[in-house]
Design a protein that fits this description.
This protein is α/β, with parallel strands linked by helices and about 350 residues long. The protein has helices at about 30-45, 60-70, 115-125, 145-150, 165-175, 185-195, 200-210, 220-225, 230-240, 245-260, 265-285, 290-295, 300-315, 315-335, 340-355; strands at about 5-10, 20-25, 50-55, 75-85, 130-135, 155. Strand 3, helix 2 and strand 4 form a beta-alpha-beta unit.
């Protein structure tokens, strides 16, 4: 059953010409933001909009299209929003177009059976003037339906932005929606902590903005209020491996296994990943490449990038090549059950410490 709400306003808008919109992709926050923008343009143009929401997994295509075609007593414009719209046209429910068998009179005049995709395509080709249909989906398989929608509306793929774009979005969002400001370094750390998902970033910004109203969100506040991600925990473990202190490395390993109950497999992967990145950086630097360009290719940012570049400049590529060989060999022995996983990690931790020991002198 559809959920119904009403909104009102005035003043015309060119965007009100949209009859059908498709917003698809993993970033649901952007889907909702785009839908809100469509609604606002309709409100400005029509003065009042009746909003109805459907769940594509439980609603029938007939109910959705009946609502699109029906005209209310108040003659107001309707915005019909369908979440999980891919379920309305999924191939599992489609039957090949065919005609019913001929009747006794030898006539085959029965109706043609159409697939759900063909049915909604027919609506898109002749959309109702008084209705705007918004289809939203995490997954969507492109086809002729998209092209038809683009002729009478818009098709937008909603993906998470890149790191730099997410940081800029956080800076602007804090000012426009949360009535404050955030330090650029704090915005960078926030994105590094929770990733580029805009919904999570906005939620954290709302929380941080209420801590000290009127004051900028600082780097220290983000460090204090935003939890450490799994990625940062892995980096912390990798940073301990580069101290050259065997006791420090073994202590961190023990915390991960005995306290955090981490599986040895991803820990071993982080060891291999560190050796691989250090070797690539060291070799590139020796061959005259820009270390920051190499780091960007490997998606290294912040303190992790600076620390790895510094280490790569100190030691020759052969040192990290041997370390990478030892790490891969230890992983192979662990997977073949020829050695205890924890023991293999302990030996490898000491191997890292022996390579970085000169850093402490």
């Amino acid at each position: 059953m559809a959920k119904r709400t009403s909104t009102s306003n005035a003043s015309p808008s060119a965007a009100a010409a949209i009859r059908v919109a498709l917003f698809y992709g993993p970033e649901r926050f952007i889907q909702h933001e785009k839908t809100f923008a469509v609604k606002e343009s309709l409100v400005k143009s029509h003065g009042e909009v009746d909003v109805l929401s459907f769940d594509g997994e439980s609603a029938s295509l007939a109910d959705v299209l009946d609502e699109c075609r029906s005209v209310g007593l108040m003659q107001q414009h309707k915005l019909v929003v369908v979440d999980r719209a891919d379920q309305l046209v999924k191939s599992d429910d489609e039957a090949p177009a065919s005609k019913p068998p001929k009747g006794r009179g030898g006539s085959g005049g029965g109706r043609v059976v159409r697939t759900p995709r063909e049915i909604i395509m027919h609506y898109v080709e002749l959309p109702t003037e008084q209705t705007t249909l918004v289809l939203r989906a995490d997954r969507w398989y492109p086809g002729n339906l998209d092209k038809a929608i683009a002729k009478v509306g818009i098709v937008i793929k909603c993906e998470a932005p890149k790191r730099e774009e997410a940081v800029q979005w956080a800076l602007q969002r804090t000012k426009s929606q949360h009535g404050g400001a955030i330090e650029p370094s704090a915005a960078e750390l926030l994105v590094d902590h929770i990733g580029c998902e805009l919904g999570r970033i906005d939620s954290e910004l709302a929380k941080l903005s209420m801590v000290n109203p009127g004051s900028p969100i600082t780097l220290d506040l983000v460090r204090e209020m935003v939890g450490v991600t799994r990625e940062e925990e892995i980096w912390t473990s990798q940073a301990r491996l580069m101290t050259g202190n065997p006791a420090d490395g073994l202590s961190r390993l023990r915390d991960l296994i005995e306290i955090s109950r981490e599986d040895p497999v991803p820990i071993m992967y982080s060891y291999i990943d560190l050796a691989r990145k250090l070797h690539a950086l060291s070799r590139g630097i020796k061959e005259g490449e820009n270390p920051h360009s190499i780091a960007g290719t490997m998606k290294l940012w912040g303190s992790s990038k600076d620390s790895m570049i510094a280490a790569a400049k100190r030691f020759p590529p052969v040192a990290f090549a041997r370390l990478l060989h030892d790490a891969v060999a230890a992983d192979s022995r662990q997977k073949s059950s020829s050695t205890d996983a924890v023991c293999a990690l302990e030996v490898l931790t000491l191997r890292f410490a022996s390579v970085f020991a000169p850093v402490r002198r």
